[in-house]
Amino acid sequence: MRPLSLLASALLFCSGPALACGPDTNCPLGDRHYRIAMPEGHDGTTPVPAIVFSHGYRGSAQGVMRNGSLRRMASEMGVALIAAKSEGDDWVIPNAPRHMETDGAPEFDYFAALLDDAMARYPIDGDRIVATGFSAGGMMTWNLACSMSDRFAGFIPISGTFWLEPPETCAGPVASIVHIHGTADRTVPLDGRPIGPTHQGKVSAALEMYRSYGDFERRSEATYGDLECVEEASATGEMLKFCLFEGGHAFRTEFVRFGWDQLAEAGRL
Fold first, then answer.
1. What is the CATH number of the domain that holds 112?
2. Minimal CA–CA distance to 156: which of 235, 48, 264, 233?
C-alpha cells in the first residue's frame, strides 16, 4: 500500500471531534487535506456520486468550497463535492515549472488516498466519481485521466492541458473526457505559451494523443448554448468531446454541469 493510503487507513481507526471534517473543516490526509460537501438534506446513508474538483494555481480547497454557485449546483444534483488541495501552490505534475523531473506519482498517491478516505468517511458511490478542475486544475485533471482512469467515471478538464507535451501513451482503460476551453484564452492558450523553463502544451496535442490511445473516431458536431463541440467515440463506447466558447480564461459552474450531463447521457454515470 502506498504511504498516503497507509496514513488514510491509520486516521480512520482514530475517533473524536478532531477528525470531523466537511465543507468548512479540512479532512486530514497525512500532511495534506481535502474538503467535502454532501448534498443538503442527505440522509447520511444513501450512496451518492461525487465530483472531485482540482483548484487552479495558488488555489485551495477552502476557496473551492467558498464558490456558492458550485456548492449549490452539486447539492441540487444530489452529488458530493470534494475539493482537493495541492501540497504547495501548484500540482506536482510532469513538466510543470518547478517540477520538471516528476512523474506525477506524489499526486496520484494523494488522489488515490483521497478517494479511499472520502469513501470510508462518507457514503460515496465509487462507480460514479468524476474528476474536474479549472486552469492548473484542468492540467491535473488531464493527468488523472491518463494515469488513474480506473478510479473515475469520467473527466472534465476546463481550460487546462498537459505541460510541454502529452505523454506518449496513457495507463489504464480508455475513459470519457469532456474538454472545455475559451477561444481567446491568454492564460492557458489553446496553442500554449512558454513559462519559465517549460511550456504549456497544445490542447490539440493532448486530444490527438488521447484520440490515438482510445482509437476514437469523429462522430458529430453540435452547439449547446455558447459551446461549440466536436464529439468522437471509441469502439468501447467512450466519448471524447472538445468544446469551445468565445471568451478568455474563465470558469463557469455550468461548464461542470454540462460535462456531467454529457457523461451521463453517454452512460458513464
1. 3.40.50.1820
2. 264
Residue found by looking up cell 481550460 in the block:
159
pLDDT, tens digit, 9 for 90 and up, residues 42-61: 999 999 999 999 999 999 99
* Residue 33 CB partners (closer than 8 Å, separation 6+): 21, 26, 27, 61, 85
Domain encompassing residue 160: 21-265
Query: Residue 25: inside a domain, yes or no?
Result: yes
* Cα distance between residue 63 and residue 60, in whole Å: 5
Long-range contact set of residues 192-195: C-beta below 8 Å, sequence gap at least 24: 192/161, 195/97
Cell readout for 12 is 480512520
How would residue 9 be classed by pLDDT, with cut points 50, 70 and 90? very low
**Closest by CA position to 8, among listed 120, 122, 148, 151:** 120
Q: For the chain, what is the domain count?
A: 1
C-alpha distances (whole Å) from 61 to each of 33, 56, 255 are 8, 10, 19
- Which tens digits make up the pLDDT trace of 156-186? 999 999 999 999 999 989 999 999 999 999 9
CA dihedral sign, ordered 147, 244, 215, 125: positive
Residue type, 31: D
Q: What is the pLDDT of residue 20?
A: 80
135 pLDDT more than 60: yes
pLDDT value at residue 219: 85
The answer as to whether 13 is a domain residue is no
Which residue pairs from 6-15 have beta carbons closer than 8 angstroms and sit at least 24 positions apart in sequence?
7/113, 8/113, 8/114, 8/116, 8/117, 8/120, 9/116, 11/117, 12/117, 12/120, 12/121
Is residue 57 a part of any domain in this protein?
yes
Tell me what pLDDT residue 14 has. Answer: 41
| Cβ atoms 261, 255 nearer than 8 A | no
Is there a domain that residue 132 lies in?
yes
